[in-house]
Amino acid sequence: MKVRQSETIIVNRSQIKFAPYNPKNHSKQAIDEIKRNFKNVAFLGGIVWNATTGNLIDGHKRLMALDVINKYDGSEDYEVKVEKIELDVKTEKEQNVFQTRSRTELDDELMRQLLHDIDYKNAGLDEFDLNYYGVPVPELENDSIANEIESLYEPVAEQKAFDAEVRKEAVKQAKEEIKEKAIEKAKDLTSYVMLSFDNHQSKAAFCQRFEINENDNIVKGEEFSEKIERVY
């Protein structure tokens, strides 16, 4: 075999660290889907671990799903099958990005920061990706072109900030609407008046006067109002 291979080993969960720079987005829905697949089929591997730093290179969602299944909080260890590799920090970061096949899975701002620490070609990226993230291409010596790329990123950052404010305002408005509906519902629940009599004979006389069945315990207020108008 002319290609170096990773080594499949078993390590304790406590030996594995989530990479602090990891730019990959991990939604709860994606983690739940992986967790269900583990339970339906099995854990099929795919966790790539750098023994040099202890950081994950790939498989963050898989490990998160295993943590949920094993109820891991750091107090009680469990064993995990990993693909062990020994890399320096720069190469580790490059491989972290290289293992991701879709740009939509990456956080734009974290990627923008990370690209200053790595060789973008080793990470499987090209000049188009650098332009997308607003990072100057190293080969470009013309400062005006680099500045133009930087300016292209500004609307993206501004749009993200605007979207965040819109979401924040929408949540605030939704809370206000829920509060108002709850108040109205509470009013509806207390929209009644109770009458009491000393005895059944007094109740029967009252009901006869207003043409109400003496065996009824509840009378609609609107109906009673109409009866009063007819009597008086």
Features:
single chain; 232 residues; alpha+beta; 4-stranded mixed sheet; 8 helices; 50% helix
Spatial shape: elongated
Summed over residues and divided by their number, the pLDDT gives a mean of 81
Please give the count of helices. Answer: 8
Helix content: 40-55%
End-to-end distance: 105 Å
In terms of per-residue confidence, which ranges show pLDDT below 50 for 5 or more consecutive residues? none
The secondary-structure class comes to: alpha+beta
Walk across the major sheet and give the strand order.
1-4-2-3
Largest sheet: 4 strands, mixed
Order of helices and strands: EHEEHEHHHHHH
Compute the CA-based radius of gyration. 33 Å
Strand content: 5-15%
Overall strand count: 4
Question: Mind explaining what this structure looks like?
Answer:
With 232 residues, this protein is of the alpha+beta class. 50% of the residues lie in helices and 8% in strands. A four-stranded mixed β-sheet has the order 1-4-2-3, covered by helices on one side. A hairpin with a 5-residue loop joins β2 and β3. The longest helix has 47 residues. It is elongated. The termini are far apart.
